[in-house]
Amino acid sequence: MSSTPIALTIAGSDSGGGAGIQADLKTFSALGAYGCSVITALTAQNTLGVQGIFDVTPAFVRQQLDSVFSDLDISAAKVGMLSQPEVIETVAQAISDHRLQYLVVDPVMVATSGDVLLQAAAIDTLRNKLIPKATLITPNLPEASVLLDCPRPESLEAMIAMVEPLMELGAGAVLLKGGHLPSSNGTGKAVDLFHDGKALHKLESPWVETRNTHGTGCTLSSAVTALLAKGYPLMEAVRSAKEYIAGAIAHADHLNISRNKADGHGPVHHFYRSW
Prior knowledge:
- By secondary structure, this protein is of the alpha/beta class.
- About 35% of the residues lie in helices and about 20% in strands.
- It contains nine helices and nine strands.
- The strands form two sheets. It has a six-stranded mixed beta sheet with strand order 3-2-1-4-5-6, with helices on both faces.
- α2 (about 60-70) runs parallel beside α3, α3 (about 85-95) packs parallel to α4 and α8 (about 215-230) packs antiparallel against α9.
- The longest helix has 17 residues, at about 235-250.
- The two termini are about 30 Å apart.
């Protein structure tokens, strides 16, 4: 009997179900990996935004980590929302102690609604303690600008110039997401840049015009994580995850879950391949 691929998400809970832990577990299931979770924060959240954040203590985050690692054969994990410096340090130490094979870090700082999710004091800790342990980091352009303390790029050329400095932060690879690039709306393409530690690759998918993009970053990073847990090489995992999120965005308008469709940002469709 072959072993079941197991993926772990270390992130915050989204009560609206579109991002965070909930999006990650849906993605793991959609792509054929068993999902487990360590919750770092609770949010009161819906398609309109984040109304409140309740942080989990570092000690209980560590207890959750030790519990799942002591029993489950986890080969890949993703890290999402970590709002406190102490929690980031706790997660980084546990990753080292448990000798995790693959770590995907999605440096969640701002929600789709614009709500800030990461304390300013935590940015240096994320940059110095956790990112160097990552197999892959998956920042969007606003997050990359914060990590590098530089202006947000306004062109593909400026975006390309960010990749090498991001690599210098110490991760094994970088997937820089270009959905916030102003020119994306005019090109008909959603462009991401992937550096695998050896070369730079441009990944393109059709641009989809929709308001329903809540949880796209969480979903992409957890898709890579699920595929790594299943044994995919990193390049193949990134390309397949990009294809999956493109489809989830393309089918997002098929969902009808909010009473405030004109004002909010609905989720992507994680199960578009099976519903």
